[in-house]
Design brief:
Layout lengths: L4 E2 L7 H11 L8 H14 L3 E5 L2 H11 L7 E4 L6 H8 L3 E4 L11 H9 L6 E5 L10 H11 L2 E5 L7 E3 L5 E3 L8 E5 L12 E5 L2 H10 L4 E2 L9 H5 L12 E2 L10 H11 L2 H19 L6 E2 L12 E4 L3 H10 L2 E2 L11 H4 L9 H9 E4 L7 H18 L1
Parallel strand pairs: 1-15, 3-4, 3-5, 5-6, 6-9
Antiparallel strand pairs: 2-10, 7-8, 9-10, 11-12, 13-14, 14-16
Helix pairs in contact: 1-9, 2-9, 3-4, 3-7, 10-14
Protein name: UDP-4-amino-4, 6-dideoxy-N-acetyl-beta-L-altrosamine transaminase
Pfam families: DegT_DnrJ_EryC1 (PF01041)
EC number: 2.6.1.92
Length: about 400
C-alpha cells in the first residue's frame, strides 16, 4: 500500500464543507444558533433530555466533576485502561483517584472489583464512579447504578468511544450510551478519530435539569444571562430605580471556564451526526471481517464475535510479540496504535503510591494489546492488506 493506513481517521464530505462555509460567511462564528441546534440534535440521537456542547472531551469531564461538587479529599473510582483525562478530571478538582482493575474478557472496569472496593471501606468513603465505554463497548450501567444507589454515589459515564453504542438491560431494552437513564452525566468527544469529528469538541448529556443549568454556567466563566437566576436586584443592574433588568446585564455566579464550542465546529458536528448510523454500520462490518480472519488463530486474542451494541471506536487484539507486530506494521505503512498505557503506572499517578502489580489484569492486557485500523472509510482492499500482514507476521512467529 502506497498510502499510509492509520488506526483512525476522520471523514469530511462536501456536505460538511458546505455547512462550515455557510457558518463562516454568517454573522456568528461562536455563541450563535448552531450550538443549540447541535445540542438538540445530539440529545435526540442519544435519547436524553439535555446536551451541553463544550470545547473538548476533557473539558466535558472537568465540568462534570465540578457540577457534582468534587473537592479535595473526595475519592472517585475509575478504570486504569482509559485516556488519562477520565482520571485527571477528579484531580483538577482536588479529588483522589482510586483505580479498580478491568475484566480481562471485556477490557471494561470490573463491577466486582469495584464492589470489593466499596464493601471494604466504611460507607461514605467514596463519592462517585467514572466507568468508561472502552473501545466502544457499552458498560452495563444498570449494574453500576445498583451499586451507586447502595453506596450513595454519582456516576459519570465516559462514552467518548461509544456514540451509537448500547447495552441491553435486565428488561431486554436497549440503553443507549449517554442516555442518562443510569448515569447522572455522560460525556462524548468529537476529536477527529472519533465517530463524529468537529476538529476538537465534546458534549455532556444528562436528564438532570439542575445539573444542566450548572453546566451551562460553568462552561462560560460561571456567567448566566438567565433573568430567573439573577441574585442582584434590577435596580442595581440598571444603575437606577428599575423594575426590569437591562439587556446588557449578566451575572458571574460561579468560578467557571471558557469551555465553549464554536458555531463552525457545531455545524460540522451536526452535519456528521446525520450519517452517524451509517458510520456505526460500517464499523460493525469491519469488525466482523476482522473476527472471521482471526477466530481460528490461537495466538490472537480479541473480542470475538460482533458484540451487540458495540460502537467499535477501536478494534483491539492481543498478541504475544506486540512490539514486533507494531514495528512490522509500521514498516508496511500500517499505523496501528496502543490503547492504553495503564493510568496508574503513569509517573504522575505513581506519585500517589500506585505501583506495578496493583492492577494485574490491566497490566497484562497492556503487554499484548494493539488497536487495528478501524474507521468507516477503510476500504475492503485496505483491510485485507492489514489482515494479511498481521497473519503473515504472526504465522512466521509461531
Amino acid at each position: 500500500m502506497s498510502e499510509p493506513i492509520p488506526y483512525g481517521k476522520q471523514n469530511i464530505t462536501q456536505d460538511d464543507i458546505e455547512a462550515v462555509m455557510e457558518v463562516l460567511q454568517s454573522d456568528y462564528l461562536t455563541q450563535g444558533p448552531k450550538i443549540l441546534e447541535f445540542e438538540q440534535a445530539f440529545a435526540t440521537y442519544i435519547g436524553c433530555k439535555y446536551a451541553v456542547a463544550v470545547s473538548n472531551g476533557t473539558a466535558a469531564l472537568h465540568l462534570c466533576a465540578m457540577s457534582l461538587g468534587v473537592e479535595k479529599g473526595d475519592k472517585v473510582i475509575t478504570t486504569p485502561i482509559t485516556f488519562a483525562a477520565s482520571a485527571n478530571c477528579v484531580r483538577y478538582c482536588g479529588g483522589d483517584v482510586v483505580f479498580a482493575d478491568i475484566n480481562p474478557e471485556t477490557y471494561l472496569l470490573d463491577v466486582n472489583k469495584v464492589k470489593e472496593l466499596l464493601e471494604s471501606s466504611p460507607k461514605g468513603t467514596y463519592r462517585g464512579l467514572i466507568p468508561v465505554d472502552f473501545a466502544g463497548r457499552a458498560i452495563d450501567l444498570e449494574a453500576y447504578r445498583k451499586l451507586a444507589d447502595e453506596f450513595d454515589l454519582w456516576i459519570i459515564e465516559d462514552a467518548c468511544h461509544a456514540p451509537g453504542g448500547y447495552f441491553i438491560d435486565s428488561k431486554g431494552k436497549h440503553q443507549n450510551c449517554g442516555n442518562g437513564n443510569y448515569a447522572d452525566l455522560a460525556i462524548f468527544s468529537f476529536h477527529p478519530v472519533k465517530h463524529i469529528a468537529c476538529g476538537e469538541g465534546g458534549m455532556i448529556t444528562t436528564n438532570d435539569e439542575n445539573l444542566y443549568h450548572k453546566l451551562l454556567q460553568l462552561r462560560t466563566h460561571g456567567i448566566t444571562k438567565n433573568e430567573g437566576l439573577y441574585v442582584n436586584s434590577a435596580s442595581f443592574a440598571a444603575g437606577e430605580d428599575s423594575d426590569s433588568y437591562p439587556g446588557w446585564y449578566m451575572e458571574m455566579q460561579n468560578l467557571g471556564y471558557n469551555y465553549r464550542l464554536t458555531d463552525f465546529q457545531a455545524v460540522l458536528g451536526s452535519s456528521q451526526l446525520k450519517r452517524a448510523d451509517d458510520g456505526i454500520t460500517r464499523r460493525r462490518e469491519i469488525a466482523e471481517v476482522y473476527d472471521r480472519a482471526f477466530k481460528n488463530n490461537s495466538f490472537v486474542k480479541g473480542q470475538s464475535g460482533v458484540i451487540n451494541g458495540h460502537a467499535y471506536h477501536l478494534y483491539v487484539i492481543e498478541v504475544e510479540n506486540r512490539l514486533g507486530l507494531y514495528n512490522y506494521l509500521r514498516a508496511n505503512n500500517i499505523f496501528a496504535q496502543i490503547h492504553y498505557i495503564p493510568c496508574h503506572l503513569m509517573p504522575y499517578y505513581k506519585e500517589f503510591g500506585w505501583k506495578v502489580d496493583d492492577m494485574p489484569n490491566a497490566e497484562e492486557y497492556y503487554k499484548h494489546c494493539i488497536s487495528l485500523p478501524m474507521y468507516p472509510t477503510l476500504t475492503n482492499e485496505e483491510q485485507k492488506y492489514v489482515i494479511n500482514k498481521i497473519l503473515n507476521f504472526l504465522n512466521n512467529e509461531n
